[in-house]
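Readers of this paper often ask what the protein records in our data store actually look like. The remainder of this section carries one protein's record, kept here as part of the documentation.

:::
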Amino acid sequence: MSNGLHEYAPRGLRLFKDIAPTAERVALLVPTFSPRFLAAQGWLKSMEAVVHALDMRPTTHYASTEGEIRGAFAAMEGRVDVVVVVPDHSLLLHRRVIVGGGLERMIPVICPQPEFVLDGALLSVDPDRTPIYRRLAYYVDAILKGAKPSDLPIEEPSKSWLMPNLKTAKLLGIGIPGPILMRADQVIE
C-alpha cells in the first residue's frame, strides 16, 4: 500500500494558492536526514515542480529537532508567505513547535497530516486513511495464506481528506472561499 503523501502536499499548496493568489514565497520544511532518502527526494521534486508551476519561489529548510525548527522559522520570518511541511513522522512529533513557529510569525502552515490542523495549522490535504487500513487487512491475510508480497499490487489511496482551520484563517487574516469549505471533509472552528 502506498499512502500517496507525495501527492497530497502539492494539492495543499495548490489549494493555498487558490486561497491566497498573491502568495509568492514558499518554504519547504524537511527533516534534516530526509535528503538521503529516495521518498524525500521524490517529494521535494514533486513540490518544486508545483511551486514553479504556481509561479512561486521556494526555499528549503532542513530541521529535525525543536531547536532546528525554531531556527528555521526565525530564518523564514519576513521572507515567506507559506510553509509546507514534508509528510514525515519525525516532524509530526514536533507539530506544536512547527505550528507555533508559524503562528508566532503570522505564516500559514500547510501539511498533509490533519494532526497539524488540529493544533492550529491552516490547512491539510491528506489521503483518507480508513480505506487504506481496511485494505491492509487484505494484504496481511493474503501473505499469511502464502502469497508473495512481490506478487501483490501496490495500491494508491483513492480519496483525499481536506481539513481547513477557520480559527487560524481568521487569526492570519485569510478568507477561505466557500467552494473550498464546501469540499472540506472536516472544518475546524
Q: What stands out?
A: Strands lie at 25-30, 57-62, 82-85, 109-111, 123-127, 160-164.
